[in-house]
User: What shape does this take?
Amino acid sequence: MRKIFERFGIAEEMKAKTTVVSGITAPEAVAKGEAELGFTQISEILPVEGAVLAGPLPPEVQVYTIFTAAVAVTTKDPAAAQTFIKFLTSPAAAPVIKAKGMEPG
Assistant: This one.
């Protein structure tokens, strides 16, 4: 967020208003009333009772996490692992992935 604040030209103003939480997630801090606003991945906000998603950051400042999958050479059942990966990348999995705050690729 610091880099985004710098990009918006508000880094100095935000220093006194910004706290990096430790031992608790940003949405948990918001839900407990320890913070007014938190920034983190949508998938980390949605499951926290009492935290409300205000919306995603604009695409030009959004930071995306890309999850990759592979079958380990030592896996006991490579066919099952490959089937699982195939399902995760299928259109059938997309609604669940979206509902959890992520974007299917």
User: Anything to note?
Assistant: Residues 78-88 form the longest helix (11 residues). The mean pLDDT is 93.
